[in-house]
Amino acid sequence: MLDQPRPDTEGEAPEEVLHRVFGHPAFRGRQEEIVRHVMAGGSGLVLMPTGGGKSLCFQVPALCRPGLGVVVSPLIALMEDQVAAMRQQGVAAAALHSDLPDDQAREVKRDLARGAVKLLYVSPERLLLDGTLDFLERRSLALFAIDEAHCVSQWGHHFRPEYRGLGLLATRFPSVPRMALTATADPRTVEDIRAQLGLAESPVFRGGFDRPNIFISSEPRESERGQLRAFIKAAGDGTGAGIVYCGTRAKTEQTAEWLRGDGYDALSFHAGMEPGAKRDAHRRFARGDAVVMAATIAFGMGIDRPDVRWVAHLDLPKSPESWYQEIGRAGRDGLPARALLLYGAGDIALARHRILESPAGEEQKRIERARLEAMVSIAEAATCRRRILLRCFGEDGPENCGACDVCRNPPKLFDGTVPAQKLLSAVLRTGRRFGVAHLVDVLRGKVTDKVAQFSHDQLPTFGVGKDLSDQAWRGVARQLVAIGALDVAIENHGELVPTDAARPILKGEQKVMLRAEAVTAGAPRERNGRGAQPAMAGDPLFDALRSWRKREAEIQGLPAYMIFSNETLASIATMRPQDAEDLAMIPGVGRSKLERYADGVLRVVREDG
């Protein structure tokens, strides 16, 4: 038996149910318009951002209209959370899904048979069983609500084949209102949803997609753990949760492990886990305090937790739609939240190669390429990232949103044709056989064992790039990959290979504009678009450097500050130098100390950074 009584809401005015059951004084945005439409028996598609109040658009009319409201939901954990939330509101809600024990399933069916359930949450597979459909045909139905409706579309970023069968609801239940709801759908996906669900003649209710409370930023991935640590420190308030999206299952586990080592309550989540383990992790995240979830995109659909304060991506998402939905899990309470995207040239190249090699048809590949290039343009943007993102959903935002790193600190562009030509020339003269590290050594004039082995110190391009740092040349390479002038041989060892688009650049027929910070000579890059944040006690790398300094001082019988000052250690922990050249750029590191301590400092950075 259900443990909550059903409120007597049938026939009650929507405004009264909104206030009495849900405690809201008034509808927001287009909610009232949508509720009125459904109350009158209309169907339609609702597009609203995460946190925009989609659920009330079907919950209120389901309670007010006579009969049972049926909600189709793709995830068991999501259904359980929604049922629990409804019961907290005094609504008689229940769920039917494959993981429900037999005795509980029978109890739900008995409650349905005697009319004791007002809202039924059901998986698409269970709904489409003949027994379920036959049972529903004998009942009075208030409406069907198809949540996460982008799963219906083959163009959607979370296509679920079982959702395609939901189109039969239009023919078997023609007089029952059908609502499709999603937070993420581009124009092509919208039309596919309408076609598949028989909603082509029904209205589309669009809410604005902008989430101005989420500050979005993007950085080239250079020191992944250091960048994530700095972001969490800046974004977390110690109470809200956070999500780290990773490209592979192994990476989720590795990330959760080192975050736990840093003192965070970190979990991992991916599709390869046992169902029970996934449910436990989902519940821990939903009900814990400052929980950090390191996950693949298998995690997050329908997350209702309002106080997720930040979302970070350690790999490039495949489309703006998926990125938008994933970062939208932050700040559902309307309070400030942050999103960080880290990406590398290898991400872009790998995604392009996966599309090329996929068994999809040419039209699908074309669409996937277009979505990927839109995502690359957001990551590498020199203008407002939010505006580019919103345009993917048919909206046009202001030129300066004030809530992304580009608008907060606009990058300077300059004519980078000459550096581009130097790098492309080095790629060609070395035989298209080497990755960025070796090419940078050639350009910077470093006689390494590999450079000497292949006699690349005899090339005309040897040493022509001494004016730029290693990091700057990596930035040039990344941007040339982003614009398609270079490709990365993913199937081999990551060699850089020029494309047809490189020819006009080499000939001087095409100008290449680069972001100025990508080629700033020598200076380590500032993080988070707000300047480097100083490290302090509690930062693992800063503490490790202090321990190293203490040991070194004891060996020499010196005061610790004579080795390096705290300020210098803080700069090292923040900048995370990759080699002696980077270390030499940090204030307080003179030549003598560089020669004396570089090996020890860099070892600590590698092991603890």
From TrEMBL:
What positions does the domain Helicase C-terminal occupy? 227-375
Which Pfam family is one of those matched by this entry?
Helicase_C
Q: Where is the Helicase ATP-binding domain?
A: 35-203
Show the catalytic activity: Couples ATP hydrolysis with the unwinding of duplex DNA by translocating in the 3'-5' direction
Domain HRDC intervals:
535-609
GO CC, any one term: cytoplasm
Q: What are the recorded GO MF terms, alphabetically? A: 3'-5' DNA helicase activity; ATP binding; DNA binding; four-way junction helicase activity; hydrolase activity; metal ion binding
What's the Enzyme Commission number for this chain? 5.6.2.4
NCBIfam families assigned: recQ (TIGR01389), recQ_fam (TIGR00614)
Return the protein name: DNA helicase RecQ
